[in-house]
Design goal:
The chain is α/β, with parallel strands linked by helices. It has 5 helices and 15 strands. A 6-stranded mixed β-sheet has the order 5-6-9-10-12-11, covered by helices on one side. Strands 4-3-2-1-13 form a 5-stranded mixed β-sheet, with helices on one face. A two-stranded parallel sheet has the order 7-8. Helix 2 links the parallel strand 2 and strand 3. The longest helix has 10 residues.
Length: about 210
């Protein structure tokens, strides 16, 4: 299965210079937040693949202008073609926004998922906006990751953990791809395309080498 993940900045390659063939072969699109809702609606109009999303810390506008035709997976496990995808949007609380949470608040959200986690026997992909604590996160509070994400990875060992929030333009210390224990970690900034079955995480050519800035 070929998956496109997107976050934080709309891709000019897709939006300003769109050609339907650019989405050929993509089976699933996942947004990790902080994107224009019209951009997501645009993608779902032209893609054969479903578009899933979680909220970023700047996505309060989604309450007024929801991405049409897209599926919100916040606080749920969504199944697609046998893959179990868990969504937990939002960032660390720093200014009191609707999609900002303390570590304790995020833990409460995870705790409420106990029945879904039991029913689905875990999950294959963890989708968040914020990164995990001390894994390519920032040291400032707004970009600090959540410790509970580490605990989810350690307990359920998903194959992939996909997040946004920490822009690749912030510096070379923020990696596009990483690994923690048996879980591949991907920063979805702008766009990145990968095959779920690829254990080596080799970048796919998608107009250019995806993830190259």
């Amino acid at each position: 299965m070929r998956i496109m993940v997107i976050a934080d900045e709309e891709s000019k390659y897709l939006w300003d210079f769109f050609d339907k063939s650019k989405l050929a072969g993509v089976d699933l699109i996942i947004s990790c937040g902080d994107l224009n809702p019209n951009y997501l609606s645009f993608l779902t109009t032209f893609a054969a693949a479903p578009v899933l999303y979680v909220h970023g810390n700047h996505d309060e506008k989604y309450d007024r202008i929801p991405p049409e035709g897209c599926i919100c997976i916040d606080d749920k496990i969504y199944e697609f073609e046998g893959l179990r995808i868990l969504g937990l949007g939002g960032s660390m609380r720093y200014s009191g926004g609707k999609y900002q949470f303390t570590e304790r608040g995020m833990r409460k959200r995870v705790k409420k998922l106990w029945f879904q986690l039991l029913k689905h026997r875990g999950f294959d992909i963890l989708v968040t906006h914020a990164p995990a604590y001390q894994i390519n996160d920032g040291r400032d509070l707004p970009h600090q990751g959540f410790q509970v994400f580490i605990e989810l990875i350690e307990k359920y060992s998903p194959k992939f953990f996909v997040h946004g929030h920490v822009h690749m333009t912030y510096g070379r210390q923020h990696k596009r791809c990483d690994k923690y224990k048996n879980t591949h970690i991907i920063n979805a900034y702008e766009r990145y395309v990968f095959d779920y079955e690829d254990d080596e995480m080799s970048p796919l050519k998608f107009g250019k080498i995806v993830g190259q800035q």
